[in-house]
Amino acid sequence: LLGQILDHWFESEPLKATLATDAVIGAMASPHTAGSGYVLLHHVMGELEGRRGAWGYVAGGMGALSQAIAHAATARGAHIFAEKAVCHVLLGRDGEAQGVVLQDGTEVRSKLVLSNASPQITFLELIPQEQLPKDFVQHIRQVDTRSPVTKINVAVDRLPNFLAAPNTRNGQPLPHHQCSIHLNCEGIQLLHQAFTEATHGHPSSRPMIELCIPSALDPGLAPLGCHVVSLFTQYTPSVLAGGRSWDEQARNAYADTVFDCIEDYAPGFKASVIGRDILTPTDLERIFGLPGGNIFHGAMSLDQLYFARPAPSYSGYRSPVPGLYLCGSGAHPGGGVMGAAGRNAAQVAIKDFRHL
């Protein structure tokens, strides 16, 4: 359990709770949930410029990372077709992947197909079910994809001013503005209570909030004096109590709760808001193809990791369909902006390609 690990190393409850957020981030789980300690490890296992466990902002926003990968690929002869949805994977007589068919009917032939989509989309929507083993299909259907995350992007006309560390008169970003700011994390029990409310279909009344201000480090993201604030919040159930869906009223009511909480820490925040974009679990699924809104394409629980990701006997990136590989967050070792699944899948695909 995460709580036992943190109790062993730390005494301060706010510090333990702040660290605990990385153990439940993106997970419909409490710090008291068995296996939550692994998710904390997952978030600090990498390194940035030689610093183990360090994180960083991408200059130009997260989209700049995608663009950098795209430019590297096109420089080596790759062709990228944006806004061209794949309808299904083309299969040969022996059930092997031979390319993809786009929604406009265009066929793209290939000896190998790598899917960065979730296992659910890849195997339940793009492949005829009769081409897959029944137990495999059943396992993919049963993957836990619950997500507690509602992401709120905010535009503000001034830098948030926190009571704990007031701004200077010139309004320039201070060190704490340039890192991750955790709110409603004074104690692990607060996180557990927020989780418990969501399990009953109610958005947390005092949600866990991870706030960052990327424009404090990258001024080009906002006009002079203004800032963009990214709020990673939980817990919000995909389906609300009574089977209600996330309509506009529910979205705004939850966002108002989040903003009221921030206001307690940084008075004047609500008055500084110019615009906000609210993405509930259902929005994250609809817009980005994340099953259940899960940023990891499936829970990072111990029963869905290592040799069992995405399914037992299929953790090596190959799938039941010869020539079709899974290279996204639903593959080993799971989600996160680290590229491990993609790199590993590419190595396997290259090895197989040499024998075609």
UniProtKB/TrEMBL annotation:
Entry keyword annotation includes Flavoprotein: yes
GO cellular component labels: mitochondrial matrix
GO molecular function, one term: oxidoreductase activity
Occurrences of domain Amine oxidase (ranges): 30-163
Alphabetical list of SUPFAM superfamilies matching this protein: FAD/NAD(P)-binding domain
InterPro entries documented for this protein: Amino_oxidase, FAD/NAD-bd_sf
Keywords noted in UniProt: FAD, Flavoprotein
Location(s) in or outside the cell: Mitochondrion matrix
Known partners and oligomeric status: Interacts with COX5B; this interaction may contribute to localize PYROXD2 to the inner face of the inner mitochondrial membrane.
Family statement drawn from the similarity comment of this UniProt entry: Belongs to the carotenoid/retinoid oxidoreductase family.
PANTHER family recorded: PHYTOENE DEHYDROGENASE (PTHR10668), PYRIDINE NUCLEOTIDE-DISULFIDE OXIDOREDUCTASE DOMAIN-CONTAINING PROTEIN 2 (PTHR10668:SF103)
Biological role stated in the UniProt entry: Probable oxidoreductase that may play a role as regulator of mitochondrial function.
Name of the molecule in the record: Pyridine nucleotide-disulfide oxidoreductase domain-containing protein 2
Source organism of this protein record: Eulacestoma nigropectus (wattled ploughbill)
Encoding gene (name): Pyroxd2
